[in-house]
Design a protein that fits this description.
The protein is built from seven helices and no strands. It is mainly alpha-helical.
């Protein structure tokens, strides 16, 4: 019987490891930038989802406990201290209680409460919108960062081929394929950022509709005594 030696698969001399090892400082810096953009994008997506979940949970607490209270002050005390809805209601109460003054006595009470509640709602909206601009920036620039890495990689590969004096397929396909990985990474970073941005924008709109409706109800209670 003939002894057959085990066949070992050939290792791929190209790929991310070779790209990092042979790409030079510019290619390495491009990869690091893309990794940072991806990590920060995912952090923003998950943190915004957590904020939206907390806001929706607060809206359920408002429906169950807030409007069943005997007074607005008692209703505010029922809400958690870190609730955005509590902050809105407290701003309304504060505006109603401290309307008379040297500066604010010239402003109509209705307008003063409206402005105070609107500022409070804007604060909540600003908290939910934090980081959204970064997601939009990553979604629009990550493909170009990856493309820059690809162009630089091809340029670096062509110089190496020119210095070697050989233009065979094995000398061209490997380095060019490595360079194209940059474009793929750029797209992999950009697509989740764009999808996350659009998804979070829609969810933010729904959450802010609840906050604005609550603000309007508090406004009616402060001025008309009913929801």
């Amino acid at each position: 019987m003939e002894n057959t030696a085990p066949v070992t698969p050939e290792t791929n001399p190209y790929g991310l490891e070779a790209l990092w090892r042979d790409g030079g400082p510019i290619a390495q810096a491009t990869l690091i930038i893309l990794l940072i953009m991806s990590a920060v994008s995912w952090y923003i997506i998950f943190s915004k989802l957590w904020d939206q979940r907390r806001l929706r949970k607060g809206a359920k607490v408002v429906e169950k406990q807030f409007w069943s209270s005997g007074s607005l002050k008692e209703a505010v005390d029922r809400l958690p201290k870190d609730s955005d809805f509590r902050a809105v209601a407290e701003d309304g109460l504060r505006a109603s209680a401290h309307h008379e003054g040297r500066l604010t006595d010239r402003i109509d009470l209705h307008e003063w409460i409206t402005l105070s509640l609107q500022r409070s709602v804007d604060v909540v909206n600003s908290k939910l919108s934090t980081g959204m601009a970064f997601l939009a920036t990553v979604g629009s620039t990550a493909p170009f960062v990856g493309l820059f890495g690809t162009v630089w990689g091809i340029y670096h590969a062509l110089i190496a081929i020119g210095l070697a004096g050989q233009a065979s397929i094995d000398k061209v396909a490997g380095p060019v394929g490595e360079a194209l990985i940059m474009t793929a990474i750029g797209l992999a970073v950009a697509v989740p950022a764009v999808m996350g941005y659009n998804w979070l924008i829609r969810r933010n709109k729904t959450a802010m509709e609840r906050v604005r409706a609550f603000s309007a109800d508090v406004h009616n209670v402060l001025l008309a005594g009913k929801r």
